């Protein structure tokens, strides 16, 4: 399996660099995923990167570290169904600077380790029925989530044939895999698939791809969506059925609590 990590619609994919866009999925209904965030980050090389994220409190959005490094700031869009419609009443748009970004100090593009970051929204997010924080796992939740149906959301492109973002929010469902099964699909690359990762099946060509990086992977728990993964890396061919690799949220609960105002449930 050739692994890539997502850069921007304008950047080419390279070996061993981060991910992704929703392929063979469905258009979301307005407000279906009120935690989803869209980030446009400005890089030091003058490029702009589109990424996903998730609202985790009234002051923070969580995303992938590779969406923030090396970035000088950007824009977060919340409550959007059609990202191009700035007049959409549900949308909230915020600018952020480098000072508002925090990513894991152990993040590295080599084997894509510790791929997690957060953005502080200084103005504060107005929570309503279209913008809500996603639930995070409790410390006592020791499940791997393997076998559960996972949902990934994003505005990334919808085809391997072009690199254009989707104007509307889309989602795809596929089962979460055991790490053993994911390792097998990754040619037993133990440097890539570790305890800090969680994988989703790419069956029927469904899943994330370019510019879905940083977006949330959720499962249903007690009737609500709970985020268990952050889109991190995957195959260069988005609909080839290869599993997608995610940052495992439960592995980083201490880091999340230390770097945001989120209080993790016991």
TrEMBL record:
Entry-linked SMART domains: Tryp_SPc
Entry-linked InterPro entries: Peptidase_S1_PA (IPR009003), Peptidase_S1_PA_chymotrypsin (IPR043504), Peptidase_S1A (IPR001314), Ser/Thr_Proteases_Immune/Dev (IPR051487), Trypsin_dom (IPR001254), TRYPSIN_HIS (IPR018114)
Residue intervals of the Peptidase S1 domain: 22-261
Record keywords: Disulfide bond, Glycoprotein, Hydrolase, Protease, Serine protease, Signal
Pfam families: Trypsin
Family: Belongs to the peptidase S1 family. CLIP subfamily.
Protein name per the record: Mast cell protease 2
